[in-house]
Write a structure and sequence with these properties.
Blueprint: E1 13-14, H1 20-30, E2 34-39, E3 42-48, H2 49-56, E4 72-73, E5 78-79, H3 84-94, E6 98-102, E7 108-113, H4 114-118, H5 123-134
Parallel strand pairs: 1-2, 5-6
Antiparallel strand pairs: 2-3, 3-4, 6-7
Helix pairs in contact: 3-5
Pfam families: CBS
Organism: Azotobacter beijerinckii
Domain CBS: 7-65, 71-129
Length: 137
């Protein structure tokens, strides 16, 4: 099975100059803890609710702080034509709960998460990724 068969296709993106307040409101609206940061046609980062809490609020930064200051740059990703088992093993190895999905032209086409992998109803696959991401860093 390929990642394109299980990934989430409608991925919300934000711009690096948007405020963390706007991003947090969007996260609440769509019930998501992570958003991809796009600049032009390039994926430049990811921002999570944890980034906002730890890298912004805990350090006294206000709601007008731009996403660029607190996002995680250099995001890892997978390709839509990769095998699900391979991606699950990779996610476990690098302790990630979600990965952006790119096509071979390196254009964003979706996101794969633990939930997507669980939807495969493959106990071995679920065990692989859950064991890996649950380990302490």
């Amino acid at each position: 099975m390929k990642i394109r068969e299980i990934m989430t296709r409608n991925v919300q993106i934000v711009e690096p100059e948007q405020s963390i307040r706007d991003v947090a409101q969007l996260m609440e609206q769509i019930d998501s803890g992570a958003l991809l940061v796009h600049e032009g046609d390039r994926l430049v980062g990811m921002i999570t609710d944890r980034d906002i809490a730890i890298r912004a609020i805990a350090k006294g930064l206000g709601g007008d702080t731009p996403v660029r200051r607190v996002m995680t740059p250099n995001v890892r990703y997978c390709f839509d034509d990769e095998d699900v088992q391979h991606v699950a093993s990779n996610m476990a190895d690098i302790h990630l709960r979600r990965l952006p999905v790119m096509n071979r032209a390196k254009r964003l086409v979706g996101m794969v998460s633990l939930g997507n992998l669980a939807s495969c109803n493959d106990p071995q696959l679920s065990n692989t990724v859950l064991h890996g991401v649950a380990q302490a860093h």
